Amino acid sequence: MSLPHFAMPRQYLRRRLPDRDTFTRHPFLRRCAPWLGHHNLWHLNRRSVAGGFAVGLFCGLVPGPLQMVAATLVALLLRVNLPVAVCTTFYTNPLTIVPLYLLAFGIGRLLVGAHGPTVVPPTPEFHWGALGETARGWIDWISQLGLPLAIGLPVLATVLAALGYAAVHYGWRLHVVRALRRRRARMAQAV
Questions:
Q1: Taking a C-beta distance cutoff of 8 angstroms, is the pair 155, 107 a contact?
Q2: Where do the TM regions start and end (predicted)?
Q3: Residue 28, pLDDT score
C-alpha cells in the first residue's frame, strides 16, 4: 500500500533535510542540544516550513558570511523549521548577491530620494589568492553604497520573506487540497 499522495511535500523534505539527531551528534553542535529540542524546529508542517523559508529568505541578505548563523538564531527565536531556514539562505551566492544588492540599492534610492550616490561604484574583482584583500574590497564597495543600501536591504529582505512565506504556505495547501480531491475521486470510482 502506498502512502497518501498529499504527504509528498513532507516526505520529500524529510528525505533531503537533516534531522535533530544529525545536529546533536555533531561535536560542535552537541553543546547546543538544549536549544534544539523544540519540536517546531524539526516539524514538517505547512506553518513551520513556510516560516523557515521566510526566515531563510530574510537572513540570506544579511551581509557577510553570517547568513546561516542569523537564520539559526531567528529560527530558534520564532520556532520555525531550522533546516529549511538554514538551507534557504543559500539562494544568495557569488552569482546572485550582486544583483540582489543592486536591487536593494535601487529600492533604497527610491525610498531615500536624492540622498546618497547616484551611480553604483564598480564591483571589486574576486581573487582566490588574496581573500583578505578581496573581502576588504567588497566591504568598501558595500560601504560606498551607503544609506540607500542600508534602507533597501531590510525592505527587500522583508518583501522576499513575506512573498516566500505566502508562496510556500498557499502552495502547500493547494497541493494538499488537490491530492485530497484526487483521492476522493479515486475512492468514488472504486465504489
A1: yes
A2: 53-78, 90-112, 151-172
A3: 59
Does the pTM surpass 0.90? The reply is no
Cell output for 78: 520564532
Domain assignments of the chain as residue spans, ordered by start: 5-190
Is the pLDDT at 136 greater than 90? The verdict is no
Percent of the chain having pLDDT more than 70? 72
> Helix 46-59 crosses helix 131-190 at what angle (to 10 degrees)?
160
| Ramachandran class of 80: left when φ > 0, alpha when ψ lies in -120 to 50, beta otherwise | beta
